[in-house]
Design brief:
It contains 10 helices and 8 strands. By secondary structure, it is an alpha+beta fold. A 3-stranded antiparallel beta sheet has the order 3-2-5. Strands 6-7-8 form a 3-stranded antiparallel beta sheet. A two-stranded antiparallel sheet has the order 1-4. It comes from Sinanodonta woodiana (Chinese pond mussel).
Length: 292
């Protein structure tokens, strides 16, 4: 009982959505007349022909659409009420009905590189990728001749228009914000075509060669300046530490002599060479004093 009520509720929701979609179809308010006398005659003749050629006629009347597909049916040029059919089996009358299969899966396409003049008068080449899907099959067939081609053209123009309002710095640093802006504008524009834009991504931003060289030179100069500042700070700290060490060693002659011998030891360990160093003046003065 609960399953029956849930199924009935779902059918009511789907029927309401389909009815609202039919109201959005261009010319739906004008499509109020019935089939007319000729239409009923053709329908009757087609049904009689199907019955007379059973079971061979079942090959032409039974159609199947996949889970990710929907069928939009036209009878004598008029869109049938009830919206798109599927998934599963549905029936058509071959002589008077035609149908179109609509794929509901997400489709991606690359926006060709667009040359854009930014707000600060810099020419950049930008390409993107757009992910979209058909959300309302009936509207995508009835309101636009080629929904996929129209969505591609709209994506190109929208990308150029939005990038034209941005500075070069904003384009290079705020790709996510630009992608969301393009998606919002594009989704609003394609809603009347039954298409929902799910995601827009900026793939690459190519700059002119001269501008690339200028930016590279600017970045290199900035790095060199930062390196010089760091080196100067290191020398300042080293000089301060050396001054403090010298003040400590001047307080003891033995410490100064040990530092002198340590320096000689480190020099002799680096290269095999003979080092001549002066005799401390204290020793020389001691011998002179003994001779006298």
């Amino acid at each position: 009982m609960k399953n029956y009520k849930a199924e009935e509720t779902r059918n009511n929701v789907v029927h309401h959505a389909q009815s609202s979609d039919e109201q959005k179809i261009i010319g739906a308010e004008e499509n109020t007349d019935g089939l007319g006398c000729c239409g009923w005659i053709l329908t009757t003749c087609s049904l009689l022909l199907i019955l007379a050629t059973l079971p061979i006629s079942l090959i032409f009347t039974i159609k199947v659409v996949q889970e990710y597909e929907r069928a939009v049916i036209f009878r004598l040029g008029r869109l049938m009420k009830g919206g798109a059919k599927g998934p599963g089996i549905f029936f058509i009358i071959p002589c008077i009905e035609t149908y179109s299969k609509i794929d509901l899966r997400t489709v991606s396409f690359d926006v060709p590189p667009q040359e854009v003049l930014t707000k600060d008068s810099v020419t950049v080449c930008v390409d993107a990728v757009v992910y979209y899907r058909v959300s309302k099959p009936t509207i995508s067939v009835a309101n636009v001749e080629n929904a996929h081609h129209s969505a591609r053209l709209m994506a190109q123009t929208t990308l150029r228009n939005i990038l034209g309002l941005k500075n070069l710095t904003e384009i290079l640093s705020d790709r996510e914000g630009i992608s969301q802006g393009v998606q919002s504008v594009l989704d609003e524009a394609t809603e009347r075509w039954g298409i929902q834009v799910e995601r827009v991504e900026i793939k690459d931003v190519r700059l002119p060669v001269q501008l690339q060289r200028a930016m590279a030179a600017e970045a290199e100069a900035s790095r060199e300046a930062r390196a010089k500042v760091i080196a100067a700070e290191g020398e300042q700290k080293a000089a301060k530490a050396l001054k403090e060490a010298a003040e400590i060693m001047t307080q003891s002659k033995a410490a100064l002599q040990l530092r002198y011998l340590q320096t000689l030891s480190s020099i002799s360990a680096e290269k095999n060479s003979t080092i001549i160093f002066p005799i401390p003046i204290d020793i020389v003065s001691h011998f002179i004093h003994n001779d006298k």
